[in-house]
Every structure is written in structure tokens, then in C-alpha cells.
């Protein structure tokens, strides 16, 4: 096979808890966007997802982890806000570190495929 037709490993990575997806690239991106803009609604808009879907993802992680990843206050006179907690920051860092290792593994072993 030539260089441009060589076989390459590819894959998706997420972390499960009790057989159900808990953290993946999309949820980490959502946490990062909430951290950057301070709003679940704005983060959802930036990702072209509904507020409801974003809220459900956050609520799922908040409920299933041992500490919340996001704390939010509903709108009011000054509007609502959302803050990524220390636990949320840890989730971002840990997932990104593991994801980088996963990508390195795929890259390293792509050349060893013999089909």
C-alpha cells in the first residue's frame, strides 16, 4: 500500500459509569464553553445544541459523580450564571490527558496493521 492508502487506527473515547456514558469529548467541550462564557445557554448555542440537551448532560454528570461539575443560578434581575466547579475542572483535565494518550496509542500502532 502507498503512504496515502495505508491503514490507520481510529476510534472514539468516552468514560462510562455502570455501563452508561458519563464523559466524552462533547461533554468536555460543553464544560469548557460554560467555563469560558459563564452560561449553559450560551455554551449550548455555541455548540448548536438545545439548552435542554446541555442541561441534561450537566445534570447527568452532576448526579452521577461524587461532586457537581457545574453550579448554576437561574436568571433574575442580573441574569443567571453557571460556574464550572473544581470537580468539573478535574474532569476536563483528566479526560483531555487520557484522550491525548489514546490518540498517541492510535498513531503509534497504526503502522502495525497487516490486513
UniProtKB/TrEMBL annotation:
Transmembrane segments: none
GO molecular function, one term: DNA-binding transcription factor activity
UniProt-listed Gene3D superfamilies: Winged helix-like DNA-binding domain superfamily/Winged helix DNA-binding domain (1.10.10.10)
Domain named HTH lysR-type: residues: 28-89
SUPFAM superfamilies: Winged helix' DNA-binding domain
Pfam families for this protein: HTH_1
Descriptive protein name: Molybdate transport system regulatory protein
Origin species: Pedobacter westerhofensis
Amino acid at each position: 500500500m502507498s503512504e496515502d492508502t495505508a491503514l490507520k487506527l481510529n476510534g472514539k473515547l468516552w468514560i462510562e459509569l455502570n455501563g452508561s456514558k458519563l464523559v466524552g469529548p462533547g461533554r468536555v467541550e460543553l464544560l469548557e464553553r460554560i467555563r469560558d462564557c459563564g452560561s449553559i445557554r450560551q455554551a449550548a448555542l455555541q455548540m448548536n445544541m438545545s439548552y435542554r440537551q446541555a442541561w441534561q448532560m450537566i445534570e447527568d454528570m452532576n448526579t452521577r459523580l461524587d461532586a457537581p461539575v457545574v453550579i448554576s443560578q437561574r436568571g433574575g434581575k442580573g441574569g443567571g450564571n453557571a460556574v464550572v466547579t473544581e470537580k468539573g475542572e478535574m474532569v476536563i483535565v483528566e479526560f483531555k490527558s487520557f484522550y491525548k494518550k489514546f490518540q498517541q496509542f492510535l498513531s503509534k500502532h497504526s503502522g502495525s496493521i497487516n490486513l
